[in-house]
Amino acid sequence: MNRSARYLLLALLMLVSFQPLRAQVAISVGFGPPALPVYEQPLCPEEGYIWTPGYWAYDDDDGYYWIPGTWVLAPQIGYLWTPPWWGWGGNAFLFHEGYWGPQVGFYGGINYGFGYFGNGFEGGRWQDNRFYYNRAVMNVNVTNIHTVYNTTVINRGVENRISYNGGNGGINARPTPAQEAFDHERHIAPIAAQTEHMRQARGNPELRASTNQGKPPIAATDRPGSFSGHGVVPAREAGAPYHPPANARENRPVANGGENRPGGPAGENRPANPTHASELSQHQVVTPPSSGDAKLDRKYQQQQEKLVAKQNQEHQKLQQQQAKEDQRAQQQVARQQQNQARQQQYQVRQQQTEQRHAQQTQQMEQRHTQQTQSFQEREVRPEGRPH
């Protein structure tokens, strides 16, 4: 088995995720995200994992929430991560999704730290089908990971915690022609472990900016979806005081053509584009104005109760089904991560064995050379010795 074997399964799974163009806008919001919090990078868990920095995402109901930075196993040898970013689009802040690709593209000039200082990536490089980490900016245990180097990087924006491009107070940066070309190449979308990581972050109330005031208690993790344990790193401080606009609820986003609108005859507000049935409240029976005919009103009331009961039963059934499917998806992601870890452990053991074999072979060859030389020196006859 060669060194790329551990990537084979993941690469095959990722084929369906190739996209010719980057998803330019996933969602738009009327006000910018909070400043990036200050936090430490957790230790890299194993060789081949690449750092994906944390960022602020947006939820229609709960506002901005933090996606913790985490180490992710690269889906393919030679691929790097281009982080997502927010940018002013003229009348709203637009979200640009992150992606995997052979080059790091434009990410708004945002200084995410840890090698992502606004332009390119200084945290590591691929060499001979292995990823080498720059210890000057990456938190790597050299006892476990030996593919390292040390190159000093001048981070001129170290005090800059701005999390968006353009607009009032945003980063003033534009993509280079090369970065624009990278942006239009074929990419791999965030892998399953990343989407599950995002889903868990979205459902965690502690990660909402309205709760943590820009200082999330889970700022980074050592693996995707690991939101508890020794690998979790809290934010040391908020990047800046968090002051959402007073009309934040009126600046809700419009995504995929959706809008905030009543959800049905009852007039209750329901999400424009809900993903899960659990995001919707159950339907309620609404008492209509009296028609003056008590018998007719009662009949209407009974028909409405029957309809609402049927709708709520269907709602509950779908919610339970989706919960089971989400659980199975989480278990599948966990199994994939375990398989990847086992493959990596086997790869490390194989590399250690090869190194030991090479050392043994060299030592044997040196012994044989020395033995041959010693033998030849003993058998050489002195000059003048009679025959």
Number of strands: 18
Shape: elongated
Strand content: 5-15%
Low-confidence stretches: 1-24, 252-270
The helix/strand series, from N terminus to C terminus, equals HEEEEEEEEEEEEEEHEHHEEEH
Spatial gap, N to C terminus? 60 Å
Q: In percent, how helical is the residue content? A: 25-40%
Mean of pLDDT: 81
Rg of Cα set: 29 Å
Main beta sheet = 4 strands, mixed
The total tally of domains equals 2
From the helix content, strand content and strand pairing, which structural class follows? alpha+beta
**What is the strand arrangement across the widest sheet?**
2-9-8-14
What count of helical segments does DSSP give?
A: 5
Structure description:
The chain has 387 residues and is of the alpha+beta class. It has two domains: 7-251, no CATH class; 315-374. The chain is 30% helix and 15% strand. It contains five helices and 18 strands. It has helices at 5-14, 177-183, 192-202, 209-212, 294-379; strands at 18-19, 28-29, 49-52, 55-59, 63-67, 69-73, 80-82, 85-88, 93-96, 99-101, 124-127, 130-134, 148-149, 164-165, 187-188, 220-221, 261-262, 269-270. A four-stranded mixed β-sheet has the order 2-9-8-14, with no helix packed on it. The protein has a three-stranded mixed β-sheet with strand order 3-6-16, with no helix packed on it. The protein has a three-stranded mixed β-sheet with strand order 11-12-13, with no helix packed on it. A hairpin with a 3-residue loop joins strand 4 (55-59) and strand 5. The protein is elongated and about 130 Å long. The termini are far apart.
